[in-house]
Write a structure and sequence with these properties.
Distance between the termini: 47 Å
Number of strands: 21
Radius of gyration: 28 Å
Helix content: 25-40%
Strand order of the largest sheet: 1-2-3-4-6-8-11-13-15-16-17-18-19-20-21
């Protein structure tokens, strides 16, 4: 039986596979590697020319963004030209180009134009070199009827988006654009409204150069929307972005609060990730807080919500947070980063406490899960113990699971967990992710666990587990 099971290592089983299967396997490899298989045997000499996916990468992330090596660039461009020349199928399903070193923009422009003649479905261009500065997308991209995925990340200065008069993208479902500048001629809005089946939109670090400082995203087919704005300069200038997407399911917003986001008719929204950062300058704090509150008001129907510590900081800038917050009746899953209390001396009046989190929890009456990725802030808890006298409704009626990270096992940490166990009577599981220091101290872990289990024995059947930090 053992002899029957032996495999003859000299037999080339891969070459015996059908040509279509081999091409499918090669489609998962970088094109450079696929081309190298041509030396294996006569049969393999031209198989790479039948692969419908082209995946190209030039340089590495460690390369100097400003350095230009003309010889290496020419070799790479010649290689890509040969890939196109020898390609032996009428269609190219996907094309991915990632450049960390200089490539002549005219070559890139020519490759993109050639792809438009090959019924391209997925086009992904990523540039990490300044050389692409000012290179517009060919007009033919905006009338490619076969295009399903378009991702362009220019990763340098803002590039003016030049949209032709005719836009025809009937099959485009995924559109990711980074470092583009939208002018005030309405071309950007026209592009977004001309994609009838668009489902996934990402606008990353884009400039909205509009005289009215307004930009509208209106698309009834949109399911996922991500806005990323890392602008950090303090300013009272902002861009108002109005989002009308009745079928949107997921919304992610990372912003330095230059964006004033107005959400309209997001009745289908289920999941939101909000990470906004307001820089602590007294001139702008109140307006920043108002923008965050408007943002939360527009997503109050979500079932799952992530709030960063910076978002919670912005909510603390004046006013009665408990009165100003909307109620999240549908929210089942909440994950937060605990606010930091470390600020420069000149901003001592803005030091944060867990009070903001407790105010938020007071507005989530049906919460099932609470996750705190940054753990607790012991000093803040010890300074304002009175906030623990207020018991959120969800603790009594719905909270079933708690995850807490960066747990160090201090007396304040344990006190807070006891408060949870005492009041969250439906709690079923508490996962405690320990700091490196506590992870190494198994004896202390066991001591704390026994203390907590003894404390909750008469109030809940909660399972408590200690885990290393993720």
């Amino acid at each position: 039986m053992a002899k029957d099971m032996e495999v003859d290592s000299s037999v080339d089983r891969i070459s015996a596979l059908p040509e279509g299967v081999i091409c499918h396997i090669l489609s998962f490899l970088p094109t450079k590697v696929a081309v190298q298989t041509s030396v294996l045997s006569t049969k393999w000499r031209k198989i790479y020319t039948l692969v419908s996916c082209i995946d190209l990468e030039f340089g590495t992330l460690d390369d100097d963004r400003e350095e230009i090596d003309a010889e290496k660039s020419n070799r790479f461009s010649n290689f890509v030209d040969r890939v196109f020349f020898f390609h032996d199928k009428p269609s190219i399903v996907s094309f991915r180009l990632k450049c960390y070193q200089y490539v002549d923009p005219l070559h890139v422009d020519g490759w993109i134009r050639a792809l438009m003649q090959h019924s391209i479905q997925e086009l992904d261009i990523y540039n990490h070199h300044f050389a692409f500065l000012g290179m517009p997308l060919p007009a033919s991209v905006f009338s490619c009827e076969t295009l399903v995925v378009l991702k362009v990340n220019l990763n340098s200065s803002y590039h003016a988006l030049k949209v032709p008069a005719r836009i025809c993208l009937p099959n485009l479902k995924v559109l990711h654009m980074h470092d583009f500048s939208f002018s005030n001629d309405g071309s950007g809005e026209k592009l977004l409204s001309s994609c009838p089946v668009l489902e996934d939109l990402v606008l990353g670090s884009c400039a909205f150069n509009n005289d009215r400082s307004k930009f509208k995203i209106s698309n009834s087919s949109l399911r996922r929307l991500t806005l990323q704005d890392y602008y950090t300069e303090l300013s009272d200038q902002f861009v108002q972005i109005m989002i009308c997407a009745p079928n949107l399911l997921l919304f992610k917003c990372t912003s330095g609060l230059r964006l004033d986001v107005i959400l309209c008719n997001l009745s289908s929204l289920e999941d939101a990730h909000i990470n906004v950062r307001a820089y602590a300058h007294e001139v702008y704090l109140v307006s920043y807080r108002v923008r965050v509150l408007k943002l939360l008001l527009g997503i109050q129907g979500v079932k799952s919500l992530f709030l960063s510590n910076h978002t919670i900081e912005a909510l603390s800038y004046g006013g009665n947070l408990h009165a100003d917050l909307p109620t999240f009746h549908n929210l089942k899953f909440l994950q937060v980063d605990w606010p930091s209390v470390e600020y420069p001396r000149e901003f001592e009046d803005t030091i944060q406490t867990p009070k903001e989190l407790m105010d938020i929890l007071q507005k989530t009456p049906n919460l099932n899960y609470l996750g705190m990725r940054e753990g607790l802030e012991p000093d803040a808890l010890s300074q304002e113990k009175e906030i623990l006298n207020s018991i959120p409704q969800c603790f009594i009626s719905s909270l079933k699971r708690l995850d807490i990270a960066a747990f160090d096992g201090t007396a304040t940490d344990v006190h807070f967990l006891k408060y949870l166990l005492e009041n969250a009577t439906l709690l079923q599981k508490m996962s405690i992710f320990c700091t490196e220091k506590l992870s190494a101290n198994l004896e202390k872990q066991e001591e704390i666990k026994n203390e907590l289990e003894l404390f909750c024995a008469d109030t809940t059947s909660c399972v408590i587990e200690f885990l290393p930090s993720e």
